Amino acid sequence: MIGIGGQFDNSNPFTSGYQLFPMFLNHVINGDTVSFTTPTITVTEAAGTVNISVSLKNATALPTSVDVVVTGGSATAGSYFTYTTQTVTFAANSNAAQTVTLSITDDNLFESNDTIVLSLQNATNNAVIDAAANTYTIVITDN
User: Fold this and answer.
1) Structure pTM?
2) How far apart are CA 68 and CA 54, in angstroms?
3) Rounded to whole angstroms, what are the CA distances from 42 to 46, 48, 55, 83?
4) Each residue of 15-49: pLDDT tens digit?
5) Are residues 138 and 49 in contact, defined by beta-carbon separation less than 8 angstroms?
């Protein structure tokens, strides 16, 4: 509510958004945020597997889950890599990073580099997916 002189009046608990919705605003200001730990990695076809780390900031009293999904890239699933959507779950009150694994296929052909792009989707517990760290690109170099 705007008070005298155009100042925000926070004295009335019924007009103050913070006092009406403290849990909501606390989440918006300090809420749990999921993201990839790093934005990219470069591996050779001979790598075998790639471990992808997902982090959570400001864990809450409830578990938080998020899906790690392939959303793009030039590599063809089945030919260059094997991966199905995986869900990671952070335990209540835990910021411990979670890991998913993707398998790289060595096809023994001479070729250019390929990419796989993963994204985070469907976060639970009202978690926010960090827009600046929502994609993870794997660059596969020919061996």
Assistant:
1) 0.77
2) 9
3) 12, 13, 20, 17
4) 444 444 433 443 444 578 999 999 999 999 989 99
5) no
